[in-house]
Design brief:
- This protein has about 550 residues and is an all-alpha fold.
- It has 23 helices and no strands.
- It has helices spanning about 20-35, 65-70, 75-80, 80-85, 90-100, 105-110, 115-125, 145-155, 160-165, 185-210, 215-235, 245-265, 270-285, 290-315, 315-335, 340-355, 365-385, 395-405, 405-425, 430-460, 470-490, 495-515, 520-545.
- α13 packs antiparallel against α14 and α22 runs antiparallel to α23.
- It is elongated and about 100 Å long.
Amino acid sequence: MSGSLWLRPPGPEGGWVHVGHAAATGHALAGARAAAGREPAGREPAAADAGTLPAVPRPRQRTGAGAAAADDPMDELAERLDTLVAAAVHPDEIAAVLESDGMNDEYIRLTYGRHDSFALAEELYARVPRAFPEPDLVPDPWKVPLTACLLRGVIFALPGLAYVLGAPLLEGPPDRLGLPAGTLTLLAGALIGWVWDQTLSHRAYSWLGLGDRAAARRTLLAGAPAGALLGTAAALAVPGGPPFSYAFAAGQALYVGAATVLLVLGRERVLLAALAPMAGGAVLSLAVDLPVPVRVALLALSLLAACTLALRELPLAAGVRAGARRLRDRARHRRGEGGPVRWRMLRGAEEDHTRRGPRIGDSVPYGVFGLGTGLLVLYAALGEVLSGGPAEAVAAPSAVALTLSMGPAEWLLHRFRSGSLTGLRAARSPGAFWRRMLSTLAGCLARYLTVLLALGVTGTLLWPHAPALSGVRVATLLLLGAVMWTGLLLQSFGAVRPAAVVCAGAAVAQSVALLVGAGAPRLVQLAVAGGAAAVLAVLVCLLLGRATAHR
């Protein structure tokens, strides 16, 4: 799988949304001010967004029976402040508003017979029932179209057709583990590329979240070629593959780098167009025996298109010019030309840019998470073969289903985050909020697992000679889907480190079991996936009721 999945509100620069109780309180206070009708006499109207406390409504003019009905000043004050007091979450909020309106302790003792503003606020708070007004309608930053997420899922899976088109180029004796020729070579390069892709994508998205698109492009310009070199080196380190498998692995590494650039910068449709020649050729090759030169040409055309389109998105020429300009400034400074002011400004800007940027260490857990999930998906497809089973036991449809399901998974994660905003506005207590979010979580996860199961069944029926989906295989597939979805949810909560530790630990446990030959492969996969899913579910439930996690 190439590409990445980071939750952020849609928009040209990304940006993270912080939702807390203060936002809802601000809407309630603004509503109270609107209900008052006007500002106090003798004051200038406050700006709508100034963030000041709402003013106390002025006493209404009463005549006749109405004047006699308000003998107790406390009754009159409670009636005047009904909306404001009902929306308060603590008596101190009422006391702050009273004091900001000029009610000092002496006035309160003389008029209302209470010791100070806090005593008066506590009695008002006790008299008036809680009635929180609905906040103003605001745009939902997590609302994204389903088609966009489905498109990303298709793009994640389409590169797999390159192996179909290039199959005749990888013919040869089986690998050491009985896998088709070149499998280990390609897997080594793909796994390294997947880990690097996750780390690089997070760092670039962090720059986008800070509103610095140029820095994100510079990050991709430096990181994508480095990832391609690492992926190629990992493939070359695996001996015994067919000669063409190393060239294929190098092309695979280049594509992963180009795809990362285009996906992070939101160019999914452009990447889909680049993949069209390869995908069309792969589908055609299922019906027609295409000549080898035609297959190579189609593969090269899609790779060249992806790399060219990615380079167009990167500030290569601008970066060269900026670098030359900095070198000239440094040279002029050493010669005493150009004045020290420009040099200090340039150096200060660079230091400030570095200071406020994301730390590289913050991106490492995302790479660890990618390594763990990548190995778990690999074992789901090849676990039985790697433990000595026949080559026919390759469960490729499971891996394809998990890859395709990332599109619906992304959309459902956005729906969950949208539901969290609704829950923050609607819930009246922490317990009610937790229960509401638990219901939303169960609904989203159930829908995702239903989609994953449908993809797995469909793939198994269509894939030639695919092993049957037994009860153990179905349970393992669904548990792996739960691991990936809840892991991504924890990432969106800001708890990527626990998710990375759990997924990496599950991958290590399965690797050790494979090396020592402990237990039946299918049962080991089921136990590992079940344990990881249970731990991640507990972590999610612990964070589910924290409003600060839903930001």
